[in-house]
Specification:
This protein is an alpha/beta fold. The chain is built from 16 helices and 18 strands. The strands form three sheets. Strands 1, 2, 8, 9, 10, 11, 17 and 18 form an eight-stranded mixed sheet that branches. An eight-stranded mixed sheet has the order 5-6-4-13-14-15-12-16, with helices on both faces.
């Protein structure tokens, strides 16, 4: 197929529904009572918002962004340097951005998985693996230390092969994980069915330790409470309007106040903060997620998800899934891109947008054909060319921007915040000697080339496994340029 034909096809991709043959429920019926907001945030347990900043103030450290990166930065800054005065500003509500929309699967990886780490930083892999293990141990210790009930379950994670042809790559990943000391088990079709039943699953790689699932909103709110207990000043509904390098300090303007800060850590993901270089290295792709209604015990028995592992599958347009405390299935995937990195496209508020994701759910679990969806939502992912967090100094070293998690930030954000603080305060730390700090992700082409490349790529994802052809060739060419797929 020529590129012009591919472009013709993608013009209708957002509106194309998935197949419904054989479903007990039509997709419209399955989504008829669905609330279009993140499952995690639809609760009465959210904390009372902090007041907005309404006057000028000064601080040793200003943190911009109340997601995981900003919250971990605030907590760790006070733990490492208790004498610091720390201010955190959040444009909306703490945990209501990308952090509150996440799937909530956690592992030791700070590099979007071990295969990506080996691809990007092969000579530093042993140190990165060690950092990841120390980071997750510190993650667990902090939750215990501050009494954060984030519904964490240390039940491992699985990568499931949805086609016999994917087993070779699964075995290669198994050998790679064994080489670096991971407690992993390779399962055949029958063994996989003993953990989770789907007619698609031809095998699985089960990583049994130092990974699990967490409630992202409760994690964010628990970190917020911890930061406040340490003396951090938090201002919500306080968007950054302007940043100025004032020589001896950084001046930040907000709608009703201002901050004179000796140092600034930006943990805003894809949000614009006036640093043009960041917008060249990070792009906002959108992920989409469904939550089912709570499964009954009989419905749980149909899939026999005994150990409740977090799961990723091997589709090119991958899906990920996990259970909640109340046995809702969180089922995510369906990545897209909107021109200019639009942060609130109208499509995310349309139930038809989620038809294809619902179709993928029913293909994965046809035995749950009577299950409806309670929530559906879309959200931004801060994608960068190397597929892992980076920290980069700006404004003469008085500011550091931490971003680029590419969807793997729930646990890695703690490491990203630590790395950013060490850079910002010139603290001696071993990761600063490695390429993960010394190298930055490459530039991503600007619009309209960014939109064009993303649209062709995501259309290639859709059907590449079954169709091959130009779609598989396109994906290989993008990988060859160094972009993680």
């Amino acid at each position: 197929m020529a590129i012009s034909e591919a472009l013709d096809a993608i013009r209708t991709i957002d509106a194309r529904p998935g197949p419904t043959e054989g479903y007990r429920l039509s997709l419209d019926e399955a989504l008829e009572n669905t609330r279009l907001l993140p499952f995690w945030l639809d609760t009465h347990e959210a904390p009372t918002p902090a007041p907005a900043l309404s006057e000028p103030t000064e601080t040793d450290l200003l943190i911009v962004g109340g997601g995981f990166t900003g919250l971990w930065a605030a907590v760790q800054a006070k733990e490492l340097m208790p004498e610091l005065d720390v201010v955190l500003i959040e444009a909306g509500l703490v945990g209501h951005g990308a952090s509150g929309r996440a799937g909530g699967i956690i592992s030791t990886s700070v590099m979007h998985g071990l295969p990506n780490a080996v691809r990007v930083f092969p000579k530093d892999i042993e140190q990165l693996e060690s950092f990841g293990q120390v980071n997750l141990d510190g993650f667990e210790a902090a939750l215990k230390r501050y009494g954060i009930d984030a519904e964490i379950e240390w039940n491992g994670e699985m990568t499931v092969a949805v086609d016999e042809a994917h087993l070779e790559q699964l075995r290669a990943d198994y050998e790679l994980h064994k080489r670096y000391g991971h407690d992993v088990v390779l399962l055949n079709r029958a063994q996989t069915a003993e953990h989770i039943r789907s007619p698609l699953f031809a095998g699985a790689l089960w990583s049994r330790h130092r990974s699990g699932i967490v409630n992202p909103a409760k994690l964010a709110w628990g970190l917020r409470r911890a930061a406040l207990s340490l003396g951090v000043r938090i201002y919500e509904n306080t968007p950054l309007e302007h940043t100025q390098d004032a020589g001896t300090h950084v001046q930040v303007q907000t709608p009703q106040g201002s901050v004179k800060a000796k140092r600034v850590l930006f943990g805003t993901g894809t949000a614009k903060v006036g640093v043009t270089d960041i917008n060249r290295r990070v792009m906002a792709v959108r992920d989409h997620v469904l939550a089912t209604e709570p499964l009954t015990p009989e419905q749980i028995d149909r899939i026999d998800w005994r150990l409740r592992q977090g799961v990723y599958d091997t589709r090119t347009q991958l899906n990920y899934y996990r259970l909640t405390k109340d046995n809702n299935i969180i089922f995510g995937g369906l990545v897209s891109y909107h021109y200019g990195g639009h942060d609130a496209p109208a499509q995310d508020g349309c139930k038809q947008t989620y038809h294809r994701l619902a179709s993928a759910f029913y293909r994965t679990f046809p035995q749950l054909a009577d299950v409806k969806f309670s929530h559906a939502w879309g959200g931004q992912i801060d994608y960068c060319s190397r597929g892992s967090v980076f920290a980069k100094p700006y404004l003469g070293g008085k500011a550091v921007f931490v971003a680029g998690y590419t969807g793997f930030g729930v646990a890695a954000s703690r490491f990203g915040a630590f790395m950013g603080l060490n850079m910002l305060f010139d603290r001696d730390s071993p990761e600063r000697q490695l390429d993960i700090v010394r190298q930055s992700p490459s530039y991503i082409p600007p619009e309209p080339f960014r939109w064009l490349g993303a649209r062709i790529t995501f259309h290639a994802f859709d059907g590449a496994d079954a169709e091959g052809g130009w779609k598989r060739a396109w994906i290989k060419s993008i990988k060859a340029l160094g972009f993680p797929m």
